[in-house]
């Protein structure tokens, strides 16, 4: 089967998966428990999540490895299990994916370079260990996601490019400022990120979390202004969070999300999936909407 970028070049509109964290919690993951440890202790539940997105029509699914660097795993006493837990994450998604694609999920470390929390070399080594595990388990691409610091994103991309043979993708998280511009937590705009990520070796870029599809339209348009050709992926939340009785609710229903698909495709997105609050039902509707357009 051809690589993901080949499919995009052929003009295919691809659909990714939806939320993982909220789904794991529904399956019984407790606050303060390590999600990645479930790849060993609750592999069947992790498989069910991955498979539910494939069954909903996704072309690709992520791996349960978002917090899979040594920096996060050692808090749970799992610092020596980085390679194994990431490999297991990819193996589970690979088994669920069949002939569809697996994106090895790599999230931020939580360490801040400019604060001197960590050196560039330590970050590089942490990402290197993680991506090697994800490749060994059968990932088709490395999906570096939810980044807010350009330097951390750049280092993660380099570690993936230099230590795997996989396609390397990267998304950052932006929120709207009071003046209506999109910025990451570290002040990076969508147009700021484009060339830096491409120069580092990212073959597809985009945005995840932070916005529903409505907000993502502006981000995609800004990326497209900066670069007309780079493939773009969007993992949008199910609308903007609402705090209700101590709980965070993502209010956008599958049909509401699907109604915005023509707009995001028109803006220039090539792969559309979900982040917080999205379910297999959301992905099913996105799939239908995308197929209808193409």
Secondary structure layout:
Blueprint: H1 4-9, E1 14-15, H2 21-26, H3 38-41, H4 43-55, E2 60-62, H5 70-73, H6 82-97, E3 101-106, H7 120-136, E4 141-147, H8 150-163, E5 167-172, E6 175-176, E7 182-183, H9 190-200, E8 204-208, H10 213-226, E9 232-236, E10 242-244, E11 247-249, H11 254-259, H12 261-267, E12 271-274, H13 280-293
Parallel strand pairs: 1-12, 2-3, 3-4, 4-5, 5-8, 8-9, 9-12
Antiparallel strand pairs: 6-7, 10-11
Helix pairs in contact: 4-6, 6-7, 7-8, 8-9, 9-10, 10-12
Q: What does this entry look like structurally?
A:
The chain is of the alpha/beta class and 294 residues long. It has one domain: Alpha-Beta Barrel (TIM Barrel), CATH 3.20.20. Helices cover 45% and strands 16% of the residues. The protein has 13 helices and twelve strands. The radius of gyration is 17 Å and the shape is globular.
State the main characteristics.
globular; 294 residues; 8-stranded parallel sheet; TIM Barrel; 13 helices; alpha/beta; 16% strand; single chain
Short description:
By secondary structure, this protein is an alpha/beta fold.
Largest beta-sheet characterization: 8 strands, parallel
Total domain units: 1
Number of strands: 12
SS strand fraction? 15-25%
Shape: globular
State the share of residues found in helices, binned by percent.
40-55%
Order of helices and strands: HEHHHEHHEHEHEEEHEHEEEHHEH
Roughly how many Å apart are the termini?
A: 21 Å
| Uncertain ranges | none
Query: How many separate helices?
Result: 13
Tell me which CATH architecture applies here: Alpha-Beta Barrel
Supply Rg: 17 Å
Q: Can you list the strand order of the major beta sheet? A: 1-12-9-8-5-4-3-2
């Amino acid at each position: 089967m051809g690589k993901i970028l080949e499919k995009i070049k052929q003009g295919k509109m691809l659909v990714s998966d939806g939320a993982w964290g909220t789904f794991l919690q529904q399956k019984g993951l407790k606050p303060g428990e390590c999600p990645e440890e479930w790849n060993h202790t609750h592999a069947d539940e992790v498989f069910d999540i991955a498979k539910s997105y494939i069954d909903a029509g996704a072309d690709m699914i992520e791996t349960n490895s978002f917090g899979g660097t040594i920096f996060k795993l050692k808090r749970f006493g799992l610092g020596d299990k980085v390679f194994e837990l990431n490999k297991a994450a990819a193996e589970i998604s690979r088994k669920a994916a069949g002939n569809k694609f697996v994106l090895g999920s790599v999230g931020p470390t939580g360490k801040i370079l400019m604060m001197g929390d960590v050196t560039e070399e330590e970050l590089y080594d942490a990402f290197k260990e993680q991506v090697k595990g994800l490749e060994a388990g059968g990932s088709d691409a490395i999906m570096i996601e939810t980044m807010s610091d350009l330097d951390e994103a750049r280092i993660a991309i380099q570690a993936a490019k230099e230590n795997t043979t996989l396609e390397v993708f990267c998304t950052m998280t932006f929120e709207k400022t009071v003046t209506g511009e999109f910025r990451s937590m570290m002040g990076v705009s969508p147009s700021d990120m484009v060339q830096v990520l491409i120069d580092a070796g990212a073959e597809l870029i985009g945005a995840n979390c932070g916005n529903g599809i409505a907000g993502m339209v502006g981000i995609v348009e800004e990326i497209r202004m900066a670069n007309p050709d780079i493939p773009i992926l969007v993992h949008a939340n199910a609308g903007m969070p609402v705090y209700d009785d101590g709980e965070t609710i993502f209010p956008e229903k599958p049909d509401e999300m699907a109604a915005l698909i023509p707009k995001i495709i028109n803006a220039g997105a090539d792969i559309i999936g979900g982040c917080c609050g999205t379910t297999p039902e959301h992905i099913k509707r996105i799939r239908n909407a995308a197929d209808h357009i193409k």
